[in-house]
Amino acid sequence: MKARESLVRLKEFQVREKQRQLNQLQMMMAEFERMTKDLESQIVFEEKKSGISDPAHFAYPTFAKAARQRADNLQVSIRELKAQQDAAELALEEVQAEYAKAAALEERDTGARMRA
Q1: What are phi and psi of 51, to 5 degrees?
Q2: Model confidence pLDDT, tens digit, residues 83-104
Q3: Phi, psi (5° rounding) for residue 57?
C-alpha cells in the first residue's frame, strides 16, 4: 500500500510542477506584452517628435527603428511561448488525469482496509 501512497504523492507533485510551469509561461507572456506596449508608445513618441512615421524614410529615427525591431522580436517570443503554453496545458491535463486515477485507487484501497 505504501507504493500507492507514494504514487499519489508523486502525481500530486507533478500536477503542482506543471501548474507552476504554466503560470510561469503566462507571467512571461504578460510581461512581454507589457514591454511591447511600452515600446510601441515610445515609437509613437519618437515619430511625433521627428515628424516622420515612415520606417523606410532615410531620416526615420534610429531609436524608433531599434524599438520597432525589439517589439517585433517580443511578438515572435510571445507566439513561441503561446505554443509552449498549449503544450503545457495538455501535459497538465494528462498529469491531472493520472493523479485522479492514482487518488481513486488509493481511496479504494483505503476503503478496503477499513472494511477488513
Answers
A1: 80, 10
A2: 999 999 999 999 999 999 999 9
A3: -65, 140
